Amino acid sequence: MRASEIMTSPAVATTPDTPVREAVALLIERGFAGLPVVDTEGKVVGTFTEFDALRRAWSGGNGIMVGELMTTPVEVVSPKTDVAEIGRRMLGDRLRCLPVVEEGVLVGVVSRRDLLRPLVRPDDTVAAHVHNLLSDYAGHRPRWSVSVDGGYVQISGEYRDEAERRVLDALARTVPGVVAVVLTGRKPAKT
Fold first, then answer.
1. pTM to 2 decimals?
2. N or C: which end of the chain has fewer CB within 10 A?
3. Predicted confidence (pLDDT) per residue in 159-191, tens digit
């Protein structure tokens, strides 16, 4: 698998003459760990990361521009770079994202999240969401197990009564990607 298959494109970037406050707002708004910094031709000249933003927070003063705090030199990869190599570089250098350039121009970004995404099937994501909803409902006490295959959710375990069974079914159906819900299990024995 290559960078071009997992990268986020088009990339969101900033420029050296962007005020730091604007770049920080973009980091927060988009949930990014870092932004490529590009010149007027779209060539990557640095990165602006959460770390760089935190340095600004403690340095004081307004009117600071991204170019004053950005990290240089910047590591980049090509669209043809193997994802295993990207993973090694990110782990070895503790990078949170790598700009992807073609002929020197920014074409995308690979983040840690992009590297993880191929490891998770859509069913895994659905199962995690259903499990979290049921865990919240149960007060974070493990009461049910969840499995998903092709969007078909199976919830196993004990339930108090038919009303609770309907609640579990309704909660699971709120998760995007759920095709159908099957509840297996029984009411607990009365003592």
1. 0.63
2. C
3. 889 999 999 999 999 998 888 999 997 766 665
